[in-house]
Design brief:
Blueprint: H1 9-12, E1 21-25, H2 29-41, E2 45-49, H3 60-65, E3 73-76, E4 85-88, H4 90-101, H5 109-137, H6 148-168, H7 181-194, H8 200-203, H9 209-219, H10 222-227
Parallel strand pairs: 1-2
Antiparallel strand pairs: 1-3, 3-4
Helix pairs in contact: 2-4, 2-7, 5-6, 5-7, 6-9
Length: 234
């Protein structure tokens, strides 16, 4: 049985199955990326709910694994050289899981880097912009009288959806016929933008038929449907 005692996070969220990947997350766009990937790949894992509404991601135990204080994070008891490894940042975790298993990432070097660039597109652009739209459209930011910030993030989000729409023209998935970590990285954010953030009309989402069809295909995948609910809140 794996010894995870070197990771202080396990004192607050004990591992019942320490030989499995330990996932510390919540059902946010960043969080569900990893549960979806794990479901798609089929690796056994034990999920732990990090209650961000109670600021649990800022506790010393969580910060010991992820100093950035954001979900998700993982511990893989069977990391490189058969030693446990802890990782944070969803893009890095997606890449790690794909390389660990040889799944969800093309073997061809050129297509591999092309896939990674679309993961970075989500991390550097889509996630931050969509998150700001959510803040200014649905949450506390909506009370700000000056609507220029909302308009700026709305316009930039619409531009980014257009970039993705252009990429998906004539393609089933971001990489053509290959469903990859690029799709997993983006699905939760696009879903949240028009669902949880209620910004469908704001950004004119229905103008982007390729993205809409891609989102429908992605959400129909059983692993996606299951991953969107893990870790459960109760």
């Amino acid at each position: 049985m794996a010894d995870l005692s070197a990771f202080p996070i396990t004192t607050r969220w004990p591992a019942k199955r320490p030989d499995q990947i330990q996932l510390y997350s919540a059902t946010t766009p960043n969080g569900v990326k990893i549960s979806i990937a794990l479901e798609e790949i089929g690796l056994p894992y034990e999920p732990h709910l990090i209650n961000i509404s109670k600021n649990e991601s800022w506790t010393p135990e969580f910060l010991s694994l992820n100093p950035n204080g954001k979900i998700p994070a993982i511990i893989d008891p069977n990391g490189p050289d058969d030693k446990p490894i802890g990782l944070f940042e969803s893009g890095a975790i997606l890449l790690y899981l794909a390389e660990k298993t040889g799944l969800l990432l093309p073997a061809d070097a050129a297509r591999r880097y092309e896939t990674i660039q679309w993961v970075f597109f989500q991390m550097a652009s889509v996630g931050p912009m969509f998150g700001q739209v959510g803040f200014f459209h649905k949450f506390a930011g909506r009370e700000i009288a000056d609507k220029r910030p909302l308009e700026r993030y709305r316009d930039e989000s619409r531009r980014l959806i257009g970039v993705l729409d252009g990429r998906l023209k004539g393609r089933k998935w971001v990489m053509g016929n290959d469903y990859t970590i690029a799709d997993i990285s983006l699905l939760g954010w696009v879903r949240n933008l028009i669902g949880f953030y209620e910004a469908r009309e704001l950004v004119g989402f229905d103008d982007f038929a390729n993205v809409a069809a891609w989102l429908e295909r992605g959400l129909a995948r059983p692993a996606v449907q299951k991953g969107l609910t893990i870790p459960a809140k109760s």
